[in-house]
Specification:
The chain is an alpha/beta fold. The chain has two domains: 231 residues, Quinone Oxidoreductase, Chain A, domain 1 (Alpha-Beta Complex); 125 residues, NAD(P)-binding Rossmann-like Domain (Rossmann fold, 3-Layer(aba) Sandwich). It has twelve helices and 20 strands.
Length: 374
């Protein structure tokens, strides 16, 4: 059943230039539309529940009644700084791209799905015709629309809302046994699996993961799945390292108290902290592979490039993901404990302030979920 409108007293006039970027589309197509509730970032530390238009699905689209959303590091960056990397907030935007829900209504041309079906939403919409898409590197699409991203103007609104309309091609049905709560981790796990793919064959290789935030932890889970030999994890917080151990890490080091002396075939840098890069370079063996997953802040940073050269390191960037989404869903269904270990707490959407206060605290939180239906 389609989501019901929020009370009439909360409905704004849907005109071009009103609160959300998507409102502009709604102002030209508001016949049959209603309102839903969405979590909108207006500026740093200015996060609000706002009414948002809910458009009826077009021919190739589907309306989804949202169930769960995971708070990502990028959501936290928008909240704390008004941007992430080179993506700077210029207008209010709905946050959220780690989302799942059930189908509420189908466009007339949509096949293969049914109302009430549980789905995870792939947040990326590559253009399909740029040079990167033609090379099958769709995660690098120069015209990408990505849920909850300020990389383009107008921004692409995200999935932290009661209901939303998306293209049917973005929907993925859940494997048997996988819950909607677990399925919202498919997006960050896809990031981790893409990073592992960028590293190449990890079977029986020694790997160090530098940084045990949610992505680093999911990389540990992916490395175990792909048969890595020895997995060493470093972080500054014991809580995160305990999670890494539960996910299958061979050894963990709190680098506030202990230094890692050995070198590794593959090193995955997942902190995004510029000061951590020299240590990552030093711990990658000569001729080894260094995969940069953590997103550094915008602008130039000092890099000991001579050490990369004279150690003949293969330095590889990794960005988002593409076809790994189904593999992530399958792995979560096979190993549901991955989600159970990562998900620390869940909050109703109305308690977003408490959720965003806890989410960055790595002393006691890994992944925080929002219940989008409560």
């Amino acid at each position: 059943m389609p989501a019901q409108p929020v009370p009439t007293k909360r409905q704004p006039c849907l005109q071009a230039g009103s609160i959300l970027n998507v409102y502009t589309e709604a102002s030209h197509n508001n016949v049959g539309s209603c309102l839903t509730e969405a979590l909108v970032i207006h500026a740093p530390h200015d996060l609000r529940l706002d009414p948002a238009p809910l458009l009826p699905p077009g021919p190739d689209k589907v309306q989804v009644n949202m169930a769960w959303g995971g708070i990502c590091g990028s959501d936290l960056h928008y909240f704390a700084h008004g941007g992430v990397g080179a993506s700077i907030l210029h207008a209010p935007m709905v946050l959220g791209h780690e989302v799942s829900g059930t189908i509420g209504a189908l466009g007339r041309d949509v096949t293969g799905f049914s109302v009430g079906e549980a789905v995870a939403i792939h947040p990326a919409q590559p253009c399909g015709h740029c040079p990167e898409c033609a090379r099958k590197q769709r995660n690098l699409c120069r015209n990408m629309q990505f849920l909850g991203s300020a990389a383009r103007d107008p921004h692409t609104d995200g999935g932290f809302r009661r209901a939303m309309t998306v293209k049917a091609t973005q929907l993925h049905t859940l494997p048997p046994g996988l819950t909607l709560r677990q399925a919202c981790l498919a997006e960050p796990l896809s990031v981790a699996l893409h990073a592992i793919a960028r590293a190449g064959d990890v079977r029986d290789r020694s790997v160090m993961v530098q940084g045990a935030g949610p992505i680093g932890l999911l990389i540990v889970a992916g490395l175990v799945h792909h048969g890595a030999g020895r997995i060493v994890v470093t972080d500054l917080e014991d809580f995160s390292l305990q999670c890494a151990t539960r996910l299958g890490a061979s050894r963990c080091y709190n680098t506030r108290h202990a230094a890692v002396e050995e070198e590794f075939d593959i090193l995955v840098e997942a902190t995004g902290v510029p000061a951590a890069l020299p240590a990552a370079i030093a711990r990658t063996r000569r001729g080894g592979i260094l995969v940069q997953v953590g997103m550094f802040p915008p602008g130039d940073i000092p890099v000991p490039i001579a050490r990369i050269i004279n150690r003949e390191l293969d330095f590889r960037g990794t960005f988002r993901f593409d076809t790994e989404f189904d593999a992530a869903l399958a792995l979560l269904a096979e190993r549901p404990e991955i989600a159970d270990i990562l998900v620390t707490r869940q909050f109703p959407l109305g308690d977003f302030a408490a959720a965003f206060a806890l989410a960055p605290d790595r002393r006691q939180a890994a992944k925080i979920l929002l219940s989008l239906s409560t």
